[in-house]
Amino acid sequence: MSKEMEIEFKSLLTEEEYLQLLQFYKLPQDELKMQTNIYFDTPNGLLRQLKQGLRIRLLPNTIEFTLKVPQHNNYTYLEITDNLVTFDHTQPLLEQLNQSTSEVLNYLVKENIPIESLKETGRLSTIRGESHLNPDTLLVLDKSSYYGVVDFEIEMEVTNGEEGRQFFHDFLNQHQLDYRPAPKKIARMFERKNSLTS
User: Fold this and answer.
1) For a Cys staple, 17 with which of 13, 30, 44, 56, CB 3.0–4.6 Å?
2) Which residues make Cβ contacts (< 8 Å) with residue 134, sequence separation at least 6?
3) Structural domains of the chain, ranges and CATH numbers in brackets
4) Which DSSP category does 14 fall into?
5) Residue 1 pLDDT more than 80?
């Protein structure tokens, strides 16, 4: 279990830009990591209304149950994470979690979120490459797939908001990349999923 502040800046990329950055930072395709996000919310979308994201992330060797809570700006989030041993998507979420030890569930209960009504709302898979540019900056390159869409983005995880913002924009300029606002993955996934059902 963990709680940490995540400060990140991001921009959408073209496929060509994504591939060029992978090559520039020596991130071969066969060393990239696959991860799948399974998102949850209440039937009336309480978490979405609060701009919070709740997900199970399936990684090659770990399973993470994470709640992301926005802070005072649009680039800082409180991340609350429980590490799980197993997860079976065919079984109800709450039956697989121990509420007495889950920081995520305890936080939701304190915020009056009816955890018994949580249900899966969508899925998104990402192929991720990472490179530490310096001790305070992690470069993340993502190729995400969801409901027939494939998109590409750069994320920069930093330890200082203002310095990180400047570093991020200097990085874009250095690589001659246009800044293209990138909504959170969960928002892009929902927009696409809703477009298919409307």
Assistant:
1) 13
2) none
3) 2-197 (2.40.320.10)
4) -
5) no
Q: How far apart are CA 86 and CA 150, in angstroms?
A: 28
Paired tokens of 76: 């800082």
> What does residue 12 show for φ and ψ, rounded to 5 degrees?
-75, 150
Per-residue pLDDT averaged across 149-173, rounded?
96
Mean pLDDT value across residues 126-145:
97
Share of the chain above pLDDT 90, in %: 88
Mapped onto helix, strand or coil, the DSSP state of residue 58 is strand
**Chain centroid offset of residue 29 CA:** 20
Residue with token string 């090559």: 23
Residue 165 to residues 14, 82, 158, 191, Cα–Cα distance (Å) = 21, 29, 9, 27
Cα–Cα distance list, 142 to 97, 125, 151, 152 (Å): 29, 10, 8, 6
Measuring CA to CA, which residue among 74, 75, 40 is closest to residue 55? 40
* 2 contacts 78 by C-beta, under 8 angstroms: no
